[in-house]
Write a structure and sequence with these properties.
This protein has 61 residues and is mainly alpha-helical. Helix content is 90%, strand content 0%. Helix 1 (3-25) runs antiparallel to helix 2.
Length: 61
């Protein structure tokens, strides 16, 4: 996985946490849910990249 992918995933996850916190502070359920969804998307992307890395490592052995 490229460093740029790691940075993008981390940024998306951080933005999702911030959005969720703002939604919580403003009692905006939709914004909070949107933030949680962003965090989940970032986590899923990261998991997919980890699988790709594992397959590449296994192929080298």
């Amino acid at each position: 996985m490229g460093v740029d992918d790691k940075v993008k995933n981390a940024a998306q996850k951080a933005a999702g946490k911030a959005k969720s916190a703002v939604g919580d502070a403003l009692d905006d359920r939709d914004l909070k849910a949107e933030g949680k969804a962003d965090q989940t998307k970032a986590s899923l992307k990261q998991a997919g990249e980890n699988v790709k890395d594992a397959v590449k490592d296994a192929a080298k052995d």
